[in-house]
Amino acid sequence: MFGWRRPQARRITGIATAVLTLAGALSLAAPAGAAAGDRQGAGPEAAVAERLVERGRAEAEVAAAHDATRVNVTRDTGGWAFGTAVLATEPGSRRMPRGWLFLAEREGGSWRVALEGEERFAELSRRSPLVEPEEKPLFAGLDGGQDRQDKAPGGGGPGGEVVAYGAGDYRTGMALPTTVGASTVMTSGPHGWGGSAAPWSSLDFAGGDEVVRAARQGTAYTMCRGWIRVVHDRGYATDYYHLWNNINTDGGWVNTGAFLGYTGTDVTCGGAAYGRHVHFGLIQNGSYIPLAGHNLGKWVIYNGSAAYQGSAMHGSRRVGAGGALYNYGALGLNQAVIDANGGGHVNKRTGPGTGHAIAGSAADGATVTVSCSASGTSHTGRYGTTSLWNRLSDGTWISDAYVWSGVNGPISGWC
């Protein structure tokens, strides 16, 4: 229908001519001034590997010499290619693999390559016949985040990638990567994708039914055996690693809570797993970002004094690393969780202020839907003092001091 075919995936792995070490990938670099992949008749793999090494250096410092680039072309025409690109590490290594989706366009005799999070990736996705209709709006958000201006230290990388860290909006619309309505142990609090190094983008989960599920709807991709990535809206993506019996997918649509695999210890692309679990990572615009302050399954994530510590809070209830988190499901982008700041409930009123009559109460940890907001009397809660009041879907009002919405301001506009 779109003029492209889905051939057997061409994975660069397994044999000497197919696995490119870092040194080997660099030896393929084009002469100065030439485009990547400027070899007449060559496929896109070498050009993608070269770009992968550049991006890996920018985001993961200097890669080790034994690291291998694994390029998997899952869709192609004569002039376009799409797939996954992984900078793999040694199984058992303390260093985790890194990976991105890629798009490549052939211009003359050269392949122009873009990875997730680079402005060119979003631009190519709008034109490429390989990108499915449901992928296009998701990929368009992977362009540095025009609505999110806070950038990571160091700015953009060699491909123009821009890392956005929330910019005051910490809503994800995500559940926990576990079964809704059940509890799973958060075996490790916030830590880096590859260990203790910042950003602390990742959590570990184990126990319960051991099923790993999509935290939010989106398009799913198998990065390698044991590793699934789901691309969501608003520039977000999530990673799920160490899986056992995971799905095999190239852009298949998954709903929130969809089965991705089981917790496991798989390290096919590198890294280490000391016991069965899922290593869950949060990505925005192609790069791992801090989880702290974001909401998953109606729990707000907090850092600890060191990596792997930290906690999660639902209303006023805090659970530390090693404790069980009940998956309440995703918090809608127009919803908030009541945080009574240690109390059992918060009063609802007939208008935006304490001068209005009490019209009921909302229990600590309850979910409310916000219709609009207005100014009223000031109150102080866990996150500071505010005069903002929220009109709920039932027509009552509650002070913004006693809710977590992910935004320091109206989430559904002004009344």
How would you describe this structure to a colleague?
This protein has 415 residues and is mainly beta. The chain folds into 3 domains: 10-140, no CATH class; 183-326, Glucose Permease (Domain IIA) (Distorted Sandwich), CATH 2.70.70.10; 335-404, SH3 type barrels, CATH 2.30.30. Helices cover 9% and strands 37% of the residues. The chain contains 4 helices and 28 strands. The strands form 6 sheets. Strands 7, 8, 10, 11, 12, 13, 15, 16 and 21 form a 9-stranded antiparallel beta sheet that branches. Strands 1, 2, 3, 4, 5 and 6 form a 6-stranded antiparallel beta sheet that branches. The longest helix has 16 residues, at 45-60. It is globular, with a radius of gyration of 23 Å. One of its GO terms (biological process) is proteolysis. InterPro entries: Dup_hybrid_motif. GO terms for molecular function: peptidase activity.
